Amino acid sequence: MLDDYLKANLANWDERVGVHVGSDLYDVDGFRSGRSSLTRVEQDELGPLVHEGTSLLHLQCHFGLDTLTWARAGAVVTGADFSGAAIAQARALADEVGLSARATFVQSDVTSLADVLEGRFDVVFTSWGVLIWLQDLEPWADVVAHFLKPGGTFYLAEFHPNVLTLAEDSTPDRLRVGYPYFQHGEPLRFDEPGTYADPGARTRNNVTYEWVHGFAETIDPLLRRGLRLDFLHEFPFTHGLSFPFLEKCEDGLLRVKGHHDDFPLSFSLKMTRET
What is the domain range of residue 118? Predict the structure, then answer.
């Protein structure tokens, strides 16, 4: 049974699937023409490990754009998301671009995925704005470990927890803390129309509940479940955020205006399941 937080978030995401599919940010037409939806971070760090026949599970896959990009790279992919609208769109897109034979999509809340999906995978992958929707990362870590083969790779690219604490009225020369780093299980409540992909979109389900998770809260549960940390990288750039103190650079990535190399905006980590 969905709790009230999850119900509100699900209604928000169901409504925004269509907006995202038609947005410039996701550039679905470009994907149809062969463009990779992955950032250079995922391509450089995880790409060399994904080969023809690699089994890959994509947690919180939204409407499957990144999932299908990995399928194009040769992987046999499974994408999971709690939004039925997103999963329907993912399946339709897989059919449209001829990847349905190597792409499976499953509707499920991430922490309940083991109830509806079987098997283990060479790679478990998740990225960009996924952790804030999870109240507790302990059951999330259970899911990662459950589906990862011994010797398999878990990879995460995500917004830096530091940037998620910044106030909306921050400026490039005055980045001000507006939200707590340690939330102790209580969510932040937002009531905002539109979406990061189209701030001007007319929407009705605008209330969301979100949680900031620091590095220790993210990594420690995975370590306790037998995953070894191979690397943790921090970057002064990101993508997909609409904060006014950021600007898009020539490489398409976002950096703090006038401080391109000064502040952490995203991170990635790679872990291996040892047992």
Answer: 4-273
Please give the pLDDT value at position 1: 45
pLDDT in tens, 5-52: 999 999 999 999 999 999 999 999 999 999 999 999 999 999 999 999
Helix segments in the chain, DSSP class H:
4-21, 28-32, 40-45, 65-72, 84-96, 137-147, 215-223
> Tokens 């209580």 belong to which residue?
186
The model's pTM? 0.96
Round the average pLDDT of the chain to a whole number and report it: 95
Q: What is the CATH number of the domain that holds 191?
A: 3.40.50.150
Read off the tokens for 229. 């940390």
Pairing of strands 121-127, 148-159: parallel
Return the H-helix or E-strand segment holding 156: strand 148-159
Cβ-based neighbours of 198, under 8 Å, separated by 6 or more:
19, 20, 23, 25
Count of structural domains within the chain: 1
Return the pLDDT at 2: 60
Q: What is the C-alpha to C-alpha distance for residues 207 and 187, in angstroms, rounded to an integer?
A: 12
H helix or E strand, kind and range, residue 154: strand 148-159
Strands (E), the chain: 55-59, 76-81, 103-107, 121-127, 148-159, 188-191, 207-210, 227-235, 246-248, 254-256, 266-273
